[in-house]
Design goal:
heterodimer, A: 212 residues, mainly alpha, two-stranded antiparallel ribbon, 6 helices, 2 strands, 80% helix, 2% strand, B: alpha/beta, five-stranded antiparallel β-sheet, 52 helices, 26 strands, 29% helix, extended
């Protein structure tokens, strides 16, 4: 069984690599298989790890009272409302569930952004100024210049054009350069990631061919 | 038509038969025109008018004044009954006629006072839209140039008014019949005209139908034909022949503009021609008629009705006209596509019904729903027939099998009301009941309002209502109105038609000349600057006829014309020679005759002198004689177009009259719902939107459109802007249908979509099909005529009216392919086709897929670069993978954090990656999990990505069974889920799911693993219960979510492992949220090396799994105390063996081992690829390496290109290389081990020498004396193992080996996980590496001694406090470097065998691949730079 799985992976890898020759049936078939399997697996995992435990712990729990049952059924009721979104005619009740999800998600993200990103990064940047002045000031300067680059307010000139002041333009130019460097780094990193994955697949294929 | 039709009936058409209608006044050509008073303009009588019925609109349908006749005035465009003078008398009634909707052409009219010759002269028909007149109309009666030889011959049915096509319409130019040209009239100065504004009209001039009055009492009607007196043979009221000309034909009284004679001496004047040249190149203007009318209406009305009435379709007016590009390419505008998104299933049934009687047309009809194609699919023939023949008398006798049934309206479903209510009419501009006709029709001049001709067509109706003239409309019956309209938009009608609508007209009707007629003659009504108002030429018939004119191809005259009667009937001298009449000769010759009475239209008044109507209805025989197909019966064709629609309004029936509407009458309440109260529309029930109180259809309701806040069109446009995937399925399907329609609308689809271009603003473009027997085949003109037509067309800029961007109907006809049928269209298209090819829209042809060579080359290069290092060692460029992290690096911090874990600690691991990143992150997850497990901590794995859980499950399942790893753990039993590790659960919801970890339900969340088994993690109180958090994330978003949602909730250290791609965005979190960071495969390699280097061989069986391990904390404490006490004296290389380097033969085939460092030296042995040798030196040049075979101690020299030296560093020249032992990883060999025999007290008194012993830091200065060393391998474990014939379990076993057996190592496989050993009686023997304990010496006890150096591969490895190891390494290195006798020992080139498969090969493939990519990028950049320079130079 293990060998079958390995060779199935081998064949699927080759099918995916066939995309180098262009979009073709083999590639699509492999993608469909992978996506389908992943979707099916997600369903199973969701049931096994999310839904089933929840039900067993609430609605189906021995001796569960009305409160527990109601509380346990609440997520399913909200989920059922979401299903109504598929119908334009009856989709309005689904707005409630959607609003709940969006609202909670936004609130969680907002709180998390403040507590997990904004404050820590701000503190880290400010504290680093004293510890590593050069590096930290570079970071601060880069951040400021990058933000200035996205500053679009300016003064409207007589000819109708809107121009920013010269200092702003200078800072924006620096910020633009930083953005370019950042994007270049991202691109290079993406290439490295692709190479890593590619080399791993090649090693996998060779291992399969070599029977190791 | 009766079969007994006699050609004698055409006597009125003849001019060569004086016996029938002897010409008077010397005119022999149009005797019927001159049959009346010789000095009075004659008008044809009813039956004498064009047999094609084109002039039926000139007739009065019943000859009786009154409401019914007034209704005729509502005829649209061509029908223009307002052009009629029903009573022939000036006065209020006549003035009221001027209010005809199109003209609407009040400028064509003259006030009563225009009867005087002075005013008539002031009207110059030589200018303005009708300024361009076919030269045939410029001729005078007395022009002898009209020789019989020049007579135009018509061989087929002339759909054009033949009497107008005659070469000698002297009744036009010579009203007096005296051959004296009349003085040209001045052009109309509309800027000075008051007629354009209805408000300027005197109250008493309002027509009776405007005042809801009838003209029964004061409208004298001819008893014979019902024609107005001025059209009949009534004597003129004055001597001036123009007195009898209707005022509106003579121009307005106040026309002051100086005329430009269009003829001088009977020929076109130079000035007039110059005007033609000065005409704008295109008739397109910026404003459509709708816009213009809307402007006019907006100035005089309040849009309350717009706001009150539901307006589902009016927004379509705002969608903008169909651009020429749209028409040209066949693509429908976006708003139309949006409209197509309507679901056909929601459409009323009558929308989806198809006409069962529809013939098999060459072109398939458009989609069967109104949303797909609300416009009708009309045959051009049928359409024209409806225009021209719809009032032919006794249409039933015209029954002809060739009649196109498709063009005949079928039954009109009663469910029409489902779709058309007030909304529709509101969209047409009827929105204000308070609007007065005068206010709504301010015909103020606006040059910008000059619009393309075609744009006016569709807007007629809307302009009608927008201008308020609909208020003056008589009350049409619903049947009259609805059927026609529905037919015009492609719906079936018929049954619902009231009887009177279906009734055949009893007598031919005399109707005003349609503007299209002139256009058909090549006279394009081109607005000039003097014109301020849209004209009748601007309506659809113009474009229609223009299209027909374009389709006219010269065809040789057929001499077989029966008896020439027809031509004579047309007033053409028909000679026996039958040469084509060159009625354009004057145009070609420059027009030499002086024609003063250019107001040939004004001479229409002479029609009054036409002989009395005696003609019988034309039958099929008549047309058969002409070789033309019979026209369509009026009953079938009269409601097929918009023109006929409005014409139908003339046929209002009092009994079926619609309820009064304010928009129509101006005095009554607007209520179009009542309009549909007809039983035929009983189903109409306005759907009232409870929110807005407006009507809306079910269709819109289901679509979610809210009428009042958003119209249907607006909603659909919004839908269009949405991504396709987000659209409801119904809209997707409709979009697909629309796209199909768009493709079907390609020119090759043989449809014409622009004959009513403006209509498409509100409705889909109608299609006009050209099939056999069309007008194109019916009209035959000579090449000479065609040439003259072309000249005229050029002069009138009619050609420019259809620029390339806006293809005309005829262009599309040529493109349609119908004309490819030479039989059906002889002589057509053959010559002009090449010229038209340039205008043909290029059909969308799917290009064949081409493989771009450059991309293929790049792909192949990169692929080869990545794959080659797996096979070709020379291509393994660059250094080997790193084996350690730098001090204080983020990687080392991560390593240290996990190194602090104590047994039993829980570590929260977030695996947030999918299959796409598995190739990179699997290795990182593996090494971190190994580290956690080696620390005997318990990883608890969660993820928001279920696939990542699956990957982690697979990895841990492998580790759980990995004997090597188990040996490193010091245990033999596999790892157990939920005991040694837990793969807990999937956390859906992204950030919300992660946030749930911080809630009090953590215990519940972690209660079960992904297999549903209990995890036993109920002891965790919260996130702080985890000793550390490890995040293995693919995307920066995942990392950020963890940093935002989990990090603030725990005080435990957090490390992250991510990909190269995500690392730039993960860096900012370092220090703030993250305490360590691992990036990419190199860090995984280094981490793996550190794990392996930190291990120490432990004799199997010596570790009791149940024995509590040494507390790692104690080890750390020991480290903390040891570090400062380390002294150089304690840093002694424990390498007691001869420092040697290993070499691996990298050749691909057997190589020779030579006696000396040259190719000429004798061969002393041979080496196989992959053989391990001991490197003992090299020559001065470094080209040769002195090696010793590990098996027999044979020494020799091999080329350095064929061997890779590991751990040698710079070998001294000509001297045996002082090499360390087989490891270069500094390992604290005396690190406290959790063994029973090596109990370490966790105290600060730990001897520093136990923890700071540097390993593999031997100095080159040490004795270079090579000591023969044989690499041996000892079988570990307690069971016998298989010795196989190849490096893999798939190879057959060749023997077995027991625990403790030792073998000589002679090689290994490329992955390093199989060792080739010498085995008795077996050529090849391989043993899995993890089952062997390999050493460089045959001193087994060295493996357990503190100074022993071993290959950290195989079993017997115990975990070590790696933090101590790392620090010790650093310190030892520093201390060794302080030794002047010591040289820095490179840490690279370690022969450490990694647990990651193909570790080195992958590293080299990545390196070479990256190099190739960089080369490609640089090369590409250089090429681009050179290109740019070259381009700039050029």
């Amino acid at each position: 069984m293990e060998q079958i799985g390995l060779w199935a992976g081998f064949v699927l890898t080759l099918m995916v690599f066939s995309y180098l020759l262009g979009d073709n049936v083999l590639y699509r078939l492999a993608v469909y298989i992978l996506v389908g399997l992943a979707a099916g697996y997600v369903v199973i995992v969701a049931w096994e790890t999310v839904l089933s435990p929840w039900l067993n712990g609430s609605v189906l729990a021995p001796g569960a009272g009305v409160g527990e049952i109601a509380f346990g059924a609440l997520p399913f009721a909200i989920g059922a409302l979401l299903l109504l979104k598929a119908s334009p005619r009856f989709g309005r009740p689904g707005q409630l569930a959607l609003a709940f999800i969006v609202g909670v998600g936004t609130a969680v993200a907002l709180v998390g952004a403040i507590s997990g990103t904004l404050l820590p990064l701000t503190l880290a940047t400010s504290s680093g100024v004293a510890l590593n002045p050069l590096n930290s000031w570079l970071v601060v300067t880069g951040v400021i210049c990058t933000l200035v680059y996205f500053h679009y307010l300016g003064r409207r000139m007589p000819d109708g054009t809107v121009r920013r002041s010269r200092p702003i333009q200078t800072l924006a130019l620096v910020g633009q350069g930083i953005i370019v460097v950042t994007l270049g780094a991202l691109y290079a990193a993406a290439i490295l990631t692709s190479l890593t994955i590619f080399s791993e697949r090649v090693s996998y294929l060779l291992a399969q061919i070599g029977g190791v | 038509m009766s079969d007994d039709f006699d050609n004698d009936d055409l006597s009125w058409l003849r001019d060569d038969d004086p016996g029938d209608t002897p010409p008077e006044d010397g005119d022999e050509q149009f005797d019927w025109q001159e049959a009346g008073q010789p000095d009075q303009p004659h008008r044809p009588q009813e039956d004498q008018l064009g047999f094609t019925g084109e002039l039926s609109w000139l007739q009065d349908d019943d000859g009786e004044p009154g409401a019914e006749r007034d209704a005729d005035r509502l005829g649209m465009t061509g029908e223009l009954p307002w052009l009629q003078d029903d009573d022939g008398e000036p006065g209020a009634e006549r003035d009221a006629d001027r209010l005809g909707m199109t003209g609407e052409l009040p400028w064509l009219q003259g006030d009563d006072e225009a009867n005087d010759s002075e005013d008539a002269d002031a009207h110059d028909w030589g200018t303005g839209e009708f300024a361009i007149i076919p030269d045939g109309f410029e001729e005078t009666d007395g022009d002898e140039a009209d020789s019989p030889a020049d007579v135009q011959h018509v061989t087929a049915d002339l759909n054009l008014p033949d009497w107008l096509r005659s070469g000698d319409p002297d009744w036009i130019n010579d009203p007096a019949g005296e051959g004296e040209p009349a003085a040209p009239r001045d052009p109309v100065d509309w800027s000075q005209s008051s007629a354009g504004s209805l408000s300027d009209l005197p109250a008493d001039d309002e027509p009776d139908w405007l005042l809801n009055e009838t003209a029964e009492d004061d409208t004298p009607v001819s008893s014979e034909s019902g024609l107005p007196p001025w059209l009949q043979d009534e004597p003129a009221t004055s001597d001036d022949p123009l007195d009898d000309v209707p005022d509106w034909l003579l121009g307005l009284d106040d026309v002051q503009t100086e005329a430009t004679p269009y003829t001088v001496g009977g020929k076109l004047s130079e000035d007039w021609l110059a005007q033609g040249e000065a005409l704008p190149e295109t008739n397109e203007t910026e404003l459509t008629f709708d816009e213009w009318a809307a402007q006019q209406a907006a100035a005089a009305r309040t849009p309350e009705l717009d706001e009150l009435l539901p307006d589902s379709f009016s927004d379509l007016e705002d969608a903008g006209p169909v651009t020429p590009d749209d028409i040209d390419t066949g693509a429908l505008p976006g708003w139309f596509l949006g409209m197509e998104e309507l679901d056909t299933s929601d459409a009323p049934d009558w929308f989806t019904e198809t006409d069962p009687t529809a013939p098999s047309s060459p072109t398939e009809p458009m989609a069967d729903t109104v949303y797909d194609d609300p416009a009708p699919t009309l045959s051009l023939d049928d359409f024209l027939s409806t225009v021209e023949v719809d009032h032919l008398p006794e249409a039933e006798v015209l029954a002809d099998d060739e009649v196109d049934e498709a063009a005949h309206p079928a039954e009109m479903p009663a469910s029409l009301t489902d779709s058309f209510g007030d909304d529709f009419f509101t969209s047409l501009g009827i929105s204000d009941e308070s609007q007065s006709p005068e206010a709504g029709f301010e015909l103020e001049h606006d040059e910008e309002a000059e619009q393309p001709v075609q744009e006016y067509a569709d807007d007629f109706f809307s302009s009608l209502v927008a201008s308020g003239q609909t208020d003056d409309l008589p009350e049409p019956s619903m049947a009259d109105f609805g059927d026609d309209f529905l037919s015009s938009i492609g719906m079936e009608a018929g049954d619902a038609l009231p009887p009177e609508a279906e009734a055949e007209p009893e007598s031919p009707q005399l109707a005003p000349l349609p503007d299209a007629f002139f256009t058909s003659l090549g006279v394009e009504a081109q607005p000039e600057t003097e014109f301020e108002q849209p004209t009748a030429d601007d309506f659809d018939l113009d474009s229609l006829f223009a299209a027909e004119a374009d389709s006219i191809e010269p065809v040789e005259f057929d001499p077989a014309l029966p008896d020439g009667e027809f031509l004579s009937a047309l007033g053409i001298e028909n000679n026996a020679e039958a040469e084509p009449y060159n009625w354009f000769a004057e145009a070609e010759q420059g027009i030499t005759e002086e024609v003063d009475d250019a107001d040939w239209l004004g001479e229409l008044g002479e029609l009054e002198d036409l002989p009395a109507a005696e003609a019988e209805p034309l039958d099929d025989d008549f047309f058969a004689d002409l070789g033309a197909p019979a026209p369509v019966r009026p009953s079938e064709a009269e409601f097929q177009d918009l023109d006929s629609l409005l014409a139908s309004l003339d046929e209002v029936n009092e009994q079926n009259a619609l309820p009064s509407t304010g928009a129509l009458t101006g005095s009554e309440e607007v209520d179009f719902d009542n309009l549909f109260s007809d039983p035929a529309f009983a189903d109409i029930e306005p759907r009232i939107d409870p929110e807005t109180g407006f009507e809306r259809s079910d269709l819109l309701t289901e679509l979610g459109a809210t009428v009042g806040t958003a119209s249907a069109a607006a909603y659909l446009r919004q839908q269009r802007d949405r991504p396709l995937d987000e659209l409801p399925d119904r809209l997707k399907r409709l979009r697909d249908q629309a796209e199909q329609i768009g493709s079907a609308a390609q020119p090759e689809s043989q449809t014409l979509t622009d004959f009513l271009p403006g209509v498409t603003d509100g409705l889909a473009a109608g299609t006009l099909e050209i099939d056999a027997g069309s007008l194109a085949s019916g009209i035959t003109i000579t090449p000479d005529q065609q040439r003259r037509i072309d000249i005229l067309r050029t002069l009138t800029a009619s050609d420019q009216a259809t620029p390339r961007a806006a293809r005309s109907a005829i262009d599309l006809t040529y493109d349609s392919g119908f004309l490819d049928d030479d039989e059906a269209f002889p002589g057509l298209g053959a010559e002009e086709a090449p010229a038209e090819e340039a205008d043909l829209p290029v059909p969308l042809v799917q290009r064949p897929r081409r493989i771009k060579l450059n991309r293929l080359l790049i792909t192949l290069l990169v692929g080869a670069a990545v794959i080659a290092p797996f096979f070709l060692r020379p291509l393994r460029i660059g250094g080997p993978p790193p084996v350690s992290f730098g001090a204080d690096s983020r990687q080392q911090d991560a390593f240290n954090i996990l190194g602090t874990l104590r047994p039993g600690d829980f570590v929260l691991v977030g695996a947030e990656y999918g299959p796409t990143a598995a190739g990179e992150l699997d290795s990182l997850l593996q090494v971190t999990l190994q580290h956690i497990l080696l620390q005997r901590a318990i990883p608890v794995i969660v993820s928001g990505n279920p696939v990542a859980l699956l990957r982690a499950d697979n990895l841990l399942a492998e580790l759980a069974e990995d004997q090597t790893f188990l040996l490193r753990l010091g245990r033999t039993a596999p790892l157990e889920a939920n005991t040694d590790y837990s793969i807990v659960r999937y956390l859906p919801g992204g950030s919300v799911g992660l946030r749930s970890l911080g809630t009090g339900q953590l215990t519940a969340l972690l209660a079960n693993d992904i297999h549903g088994q209990a995890t036993g993690l109920n002891t965790l109180s919260g996130l702080d219960g985890f000793a550390a958090v490890v995040i293995v994330a693919e995307r920066p978003t995942d990392l950020r979510n963890w940093a935002e949602q989990v990090a603030p909730l725990t005080g435990s250290p957090i490390i992250a492992a991510t990909t190269f791609a995500a690392s730039p965005l993960a860096e900012p979190y370092l220090g703030a949220v993250l305490d360590g960071l691992l990036v990419g495969y190199p860090d995984a390699l280094a981490y793996d090396a550190l794990l392996l280097a930190g291990a120490q061989a432990v004799p199997p069986g010596e570790i009791d799994p149940q024995q509590p391990p040494v507390d790692a904390t104690d080890s750390l404490q020991a480290t903390a105390t040891i570090t400062p006490t380390t002294t150089p004296t304690q840093v002694l290389p424990t390498v007691t063996s001869t420092p040697l380097a290993n070499g691996v033969i990298t050749a691909t085939s057997t190589i020779n081992l030579r006696e000396g460092p040259s190719a000429g030296s004798p061969v002393v042995g041979s080496l196989q690829p992959g053989d391990l040798v001991q490197v003992i030196g090299q020559d001065d040049s470094g080209a040769w390496v002195n090696v010793r075979l590990p098996s027999g101690g044979i020494e020799g020299w091999v080329s350095s290109n064929l061997i890779v030296v590991r751990g040698a560093g710079d070998a001294p020249a000509n001297t045996p290389l002082p090499l360390p032992t087989n490891t270069t990883i500094p390992a604290p060999t005396s690190t406290p081990l959790p063994t029973q025999t090596a109990v370490v007290q966790p105290s600060a008194t730990l001897p520093p020498t136990n923890t700071t012993t540097p390993v593999a830091t031997s100095s080159p200065t040490q004795s270079p004396t090579p000591i023969p060393t044989v690499i041996t391998a000892r079988v570990t474990g307690t069971d016998r193992i298989n010795v196989r014939s190849g490096p893999g379990t798939s190879f057959a076993p060749v023997g077995t080996a027991g625990p403790g057996e030792e073998f000589t190592v002679i090689g290994r496989n490329s992955a390093g996980d199989w060792i080739r050993v010498e085995f008795p009686d077996v050529e090849e023997a391989w043993i899995a590496a993890f089952l062997l304990n390999i050493s460089a010496e045959q001193v087994p006890e060295t493996s357990s001694t503190s100074g022993g150096v071993q290959l950290v591969r195989g079993g017997g490895i115990a975990f070590a406090p790696y933090r101590v190891q790392a620090q010790a390494t650093e310190e030892a290195t520093a201390e060794v470097s302080e030794d002047p006798a010591a040289a820095p020992q490179p840490q690279v080139g370690s022969p450490v065998l990694r647990t990651l498969p193909y570790a080195e090969e992958r590293w080299y493939s990545m390196t070479l691949g990256l190099v190739v990519i960089i080369i490609i990028i640089v090369f590409g950049a250089l090429v681009n730079i050179l290109r740019a320079l070259r381009r700039r130079r050029n």
